[in-house]
Give the backbone structure.
Amino acid sequence: MSLPHAILTALLEKPSSGLELTRRFDRSIGYFWSATHQQIYRELGKLEGEGLIRALPSEQPARGQKKAYEVLPAGREELARWTAVSQDPKPHRDALLLRLRAAAVVGTTGLDADLRRHRELHARQLETYREIERRDFPPGRDEPEDRLRHLVLRAGIDLETFWTQWLDHALAEFAELPDMPERQE
Amino acid sequence: MSLPHAILTALLEKPSSGLELTRRFDRSIGYFWSATHQQIYRELGKLEGEGLIRALPSEQPARGQKKAYEVLPAGREELARWTAVSQDPKPHRDALLLRLRAAAVVGTTGLDADLRRHRELHARQLETYREIERRDFPPGRDEPEDRLRHLVLRAGIDLETFWTQWLDHALAEFAELPDMPERQE
DNA sequence: ATCCCCATGTAATGGGTTACATGATTCA
DNA sequence: TGAATCATGTAACCCATTACATGGGGAT
């Protein structure tokens, strides 16, 4: 139940059309709450129906036409309410860890290539985050909003750092391991 | 598409009934691939239909009766195939980070209490992991299967360590922040 | 007998993913 | 005018979540 609130946040930061939102979900918000354009359009329709946002009164709302939305006061209130309310952390799901556990039973054949690939993906994401940090949070500025957003970015940086290091560790273990073909018991 | 493979792994480690599987998902496998008993029963039915597992031929399969399953050779092959195949990492979704970003716009009221709560939950999970490590991986043993499973546990330990530290950091920032009521712009 | 817990399920709902459809604009 | 791209959507399917249902066994 967080997609609508992700959209409200993004729209408060800057009123946008569906496609602009989609692009911003690919870049920034989506780093910790991903969404496809289909989800976004569906949700924009719902939010408008509930009176939390409205289409900016400009062009004709025909099919191929841009339609920008802005947040209404009710939407801002809903977001503030949701932000303040206590929520339990969702249980994780990590397919790579699951595959390692499976590999302990059926053998590690083929896994290390993918571990290397994941390592590179995480390293690249880490580099992306560091660029954003250099660009958006140069030393010196410290408005409260900046500090909060920087904190979020820091979580991303530290998580990607963890994963690259852990994968290095895992690959080192793999190098020492006997090949572990899948043994029929 | 990983739940069936999580179940195959668990059943290879030890043939079990639906409820036993549910309990083990609550304890160990579920730490990185959670599932409820409804999901598990549904999936057990599917896996049996596909000929990947079978019910152990023992008791009568009446409604209130235990029914244990074991993995068939086809199931082991499917798991080995899935383990070896390259997979893209799924995009994350983290509601807490999203709430922080929302807080940068609508104010931080009420958030720090929940940050503290999350910190305690992560600290407790970390303690659980450390106990498992002491119990299951005492110094000295290093069968290949153990090293893989230990590697997975290490990921859990390091992730929880990261979160407790990051939340400490976040709470320290909050303490310094002006109260940031939600300002209407 | 009744109550509670164990064990296996069914049904309804909702969100996410993938594939496809349609109109508008731009450019060769 | 035809192709490519932008922009907004629809539809179908799958998976996860929540609530409920049913039967068996043990304890008081």
Remarks:
- The longest helix of chain A spans residues 144-176.
- Residues 17-19, 37-38, 41-42, 45, 62-67 of chain A lie near DNA strand D (CB under 10 Å from a C1').
